[in-house]
Write a structure and sequence with these properties.
By secondary structure, the chain is α+β, with helices and mostly antiparallel strands. It has four domains: about 130 residues, no CATH class; about 100 residues, Phosphorylase Kinase, domain 1; about 190 residues, no CATH class; about 110 residues, no CATH class. The chain has 25 helices and eleven strands.
């Protein structure tokens, strides 16, 4: 019954803002049109579609506000005018009573608030749709913040998400435009995101990892998590006292180097994405502060690590090369990289894709570099690729959203920010480092034990493959003859493969300090270079002999 009344509330607000006008009703079945018929009782909308959607989210409550915020981060799927309006959604929610907050904390930690903290502020520091924050002081005198999940929020979220999913399924099923916007994917993404935010231990783990990545760094400070006071619904964290990054007047009052501050934001983004492969994916201004120390070399401070992202090694590589190729206007390479990476299907004609990319990007690059939005270039590239059946991975969307946030913030701090001046040398340096012998050697040591474990299976896999070729050959004499020739060549190559493989295994073994100790006194007293030369010489001799 509660779900039914909630559904009626949604329909009423949906009708008041005439959101039915956003749906092409001619594609809807009769039942759906009847359901939307009460909307006609309300006057025609005079506000823009984006403003109507924003106001409806605000009236429907915190879960829909959060959903609207998520929509604003999906410019790859949502029209620009709606994104622009949804960006005004504020996650400011009426706080729940202090007694409830205290009860949640004491139940989770198994002790009285008075036994854990020296003092505890009854008034919340912040109140959002999912959690509420109070300040306190630990018994050892350290200032902290206590974050607790709102009571009964899971049931409310589950009900609202279920209703949103039903609406999304209807839109996707009966609207051509709805299928293009992929509303079911957006709602499912939202469900995963918001339920992740309900687990504060996960957020705490993200914060610890980010803090470790920037340990002793002058770029970014991440507050410490106090794990002994952290549970799935309660988290205690070091309190920071920075300047909100949007408080431009206060930043200028302490003579903050605004150009350096903007550039450092860009540097933090690329460091997280490429060096650490672990990036804060919710870096909107409300989660970012600036340290009051060293205004000439300003340091950022970040909170709220509920949403983070990472890329596969392949995506890191292709993304870096794509960005470099784009800003060199090498559209052919951009198209080829999309096919090589598997971002677009192999059947896509590279010349047609190249032409589409050129059409979108060339007008952008006619502007001065400082006026070009890096994030919007990436957004336009993804939109173009979608026309060629590109399936954008969620992590790439997170990255795009984070880049747009960082770039927008950077230009707010310093309007003449030339993001490419900071990004270009970073990407060049990262690509060179990726193929440096030391990096390759580190990769060999890291993955060597796995290769040693799997290596004995290789001959059997080769044999099975040849056996399948022989079976095919029995059905087609021509294929059978080709299979015999391939088998003969492979047999010769396999002997070489075994010797080369043995050489690789030996090299890996010597790279591992424990195995190195076990190879015996004779090799142990040689230095690594001499040992390697002996192994390579033996390997070459073996290959010559076998051939």
């Amino acid at each position: 019954m509660t779900v039914f009344f909630r559904f009626l509330t949604i329909i009423r607000i949906f009708s008041r803002y005439r959101l039915d006008e956003l749906i092409p009703k001619q594609h809807l079945p009769l039942r759906a049109r009847l359901l939307l018929s009460p909307c006609a009782l309300f006057p025609a909308a005079r506000l823009s579609r984006g403003e109507r959607l924003r106001r409806a989210c605000e009236e429907l409550g915190p879960i829909f506000v959060k959903f609207g915020q998520l929509l604003s981060t999906r410019p790859d799927l949502v029209p620009d005018d709606i994104v622009a309006e949804l960006n005004y959604l504020q996650d400011s929610v009426a706080p729940f009573p202090n007694d409830e907050f205290r009860s949640i904390v004491e139940s989770a930690l198994g002790a009285s608030v008075d036994d854990i903290f020296n003092d505890y502020d009854h008034e919340p520091l912040a109140s959002a749709s999912v959690a509420q924050v109070h300040t306190a002081t630990l018994k050892n005198g350290k200032a902290v913040v206590i974050k607790a999940i709102r009571p009964n929020i899971e049931n409310i979220i589950a009900q609202d998400v279920a209703l949103l999913l039903k609406l999304a399924q209807l839109l996707e099923k009966y609207s051509t435009d709805g299928r293009r916007l992929r509303p079911v994917e957006i709602v499912e993404d939202y469900r995963n995101t918001i339920f992740d935010e309900l687990n504060l231990q996960k957020e705490a783990a993200n914060a610890s990892q980010l803090r470790r990545n920037f340990a002793n760094s002058s770029l970014l400070y991440v507050p410490e998590v106090y794990w002994e006071y952290t549970r799935s619904n309660v988290m205690v964290m070091e309190r920071i006292h920075g300047i909100p990054v949007t408080n431009i007047d206060e930043l200028k009052a302490q003579n903050t180097n605004m150009k350096r501050l903007a550039e450092r934001g860009v540097e933090i983004f690329f460091t997280q994405v490429f060096d650490h492969n672990f990036f804060h994916a919710d870096m909107h201004p409300g989660n970012i502060f600036v340290s009051r120390e060293h205004p000439e070399l300003p340091q950022y401070m970040a909170v709220d690590m509920a949403i983070v992202g990472s890329l596969t090694r392949e995506n890191q590589y292709y993304l870096a090369r794509n960005l470099l190729a784009m800003f060199r206007r090498d559209y052919r390479q951009v198209a080829e990289l999309h096919v090589q990476s598997g971002w677009v299907p192999a059947h896509v004609r590279v010349d047609e894709f190249e032409s589409a990319i050129r059409t979108v990007c060339e007008p952008i690059f006619e502007k001065p570099l400082k006026d070009i939005s890096f994030g919007h270039v990436l957004l336009n590239l993804f939109r173009t690729a979608r026309r060629f059946d590109m399936e954008v991975q969620p992590q790439l969307v997170l990255l795009q959203k984070t880049l747009l946030n960082i770039e927008g913030l950077g230009r707010q701090l310093y309007p003449d920010l030339d993001l490419w001046t900071t990004a270009h040398p970073f990407l060049e340096r990262w690509l060179k480092k990726r193929f440096h012998p030391k990096t390759l050697w580190s990769e060999l040591k890291r993955y060597g034990p796995d290769w040693m474990e799997k290596f004995p299976q290789v001959p059997q896999l080769i044999f099975n493959g040849l056996q399948q070729l022989q079976n095919i050959g029995q059905l087609a004499p021509e294929l059978h003859k080709a299979a015999q020739q391939l088998q003969k060549r492979t047999a010769q190559s396999t002997r070489r493969y075994w010797v080369a493989g043995s050489l690789l295994v030996a090299a890996i073994a010597l790279a591992h300090p424990v195995i190195y100790e076990a190879v015996g006194t004779y090799l142990h007293h040689l230095n690594f270079t001499a040992t390697s030369i002996i192994l390579i010489g033996l390997g070459i001799a073996a290959l010559i002999k076998k051939s």
